[in-house]
Amino acid sequence: MNTLAEENYLKSIYHLASNAEMVSTNQLAALLNTKASSVTDMLKKLADKELINYTPYQGVSLTPAGERIAINIIRKHRLWEFFLVEKLNFKWDEVHEMAEELEHISSTELIDRLDKFMDYPKYDPHGDPIPDCNGKFKVHDLKPVSAAETDTTGVICGVRDHSTPFLQYLEKLGLTIGKKIIIVDIIEFDRSMVLKMETQTVQISREVANNLLITL
Amino acid sequence: MNTLAEENYLKSIYHLASNAEMVSTNQLAALLNTKASSVTDMLKKLADKELINYTPYQGVSLTPAGERIAINIIRKHRLWEFFLVEKLNFKWDEVHEMAEELEHISSTELIDRLDKFMDYPKYDPHGDPIPDCNGKFKVHDLKPVSAAETDTTGVICGVRDHSTPFLQYLEKLGLTIGKKIIIVDIIEFDRSMVLKMETQTVQISREVANNLLITL
DNA sequence: AAAAAAGTTTAGGTTTGTCTAAATTTTTAA
DNA sequence: TTAAAAATTTAGACAAACCTAAACTTTTTT
Question: How many Å lie between the alpha carbon of A83 and the closest alpha carbon of chain B?
Fold first, then answer.
């Protein structure tokens, strides 16, 4: 088995790799709230275990074995988040910290039964896909609201920013997962956007529109 | 907050203290699968934090602060065990290891909501009492089957041995929590006991009778 | 009440994961 | 294309939690 620290590194590498192919030492240090030198130490250890491909000064990527572990941790994280929201009635902005701990509970049997208990959910409370017990999942084709034109209709299916303040703000506006919106206006001046929903109309900044994801 | 190791020491001291007032270094070393010298190190640390009363060579006891922490860990352990059995359909002999990990999840809010979700259970799957959110619980007055006389009627309410083989054996005999039994015979020769249940009659050794707890 | 045995602590090390400071490599810019 | 800046690695330390071996207390036995 792997240590808690190792699991967190693998998970972080996986997340960072979704943007750029290669992940740098400093990126990891920033995400993990640690120093570059500590990251280097751990990268050597993970490379020894053949969980990452590491060339000094050139960055890292996950090996298939490393990716399997990373996806499994993400599966656990998202299933626990789903549990916390759907069964224990937490709000979507309250669950991240708890899931960061719960994702390291080791039993595979436990997580598979939890999955079944909740009837195999496909997406977590933030719209992120939940890998199945074989690590398979499909990312649905999302784009930021900011990329849509006037009169476009879409359904909110995810967020780019997972921070508590952002999630609370969206909650307050009623912009939650599954809501249908129509872009009724884009303000030239600051490119803020006016969205029409079932029962109300709200205006959001470019910044918010960039971090709110919809399917068309 | 306390480390995982500290929590496990406090929990172990609590459990051992239920038999003898004072807990010895060697008892702890045995229960925690570690060496006496390691125990001594940790005892100094816990004494510094004022979680235990420690006099070198004389053993330890918990301070009120230490007991509070220990009871909270036990509360979490037993609530998670209840969850695993009642919601995820694990058997009573399968849940200990998982609960050993889950008991260290830190959120109080999480455990209180889990408690509510399960409707505030009073006893875990092995019949042990679950402390409430204030750390209060009542031990019901149990005695081993071996202490009962012929023709006594009782209800199985707990076990003294929590090991997997013992629990599996009881399960196989149908001797599970809540079952009503009548002691119909005690064999002179080896003091084994014949128990009559709803639909069957079983015979158990003195050893088993010693570890099976009933209320009268 | 000594001597032996059992239990406990101290001294000195190890591993994991972190750190700071210095050295090295790569990238950027003049 | 070389000098400066940025990124990364190495060297040497540290805290937590464990270890072995040796020393010290307490208890038991004779």
Answer: 11
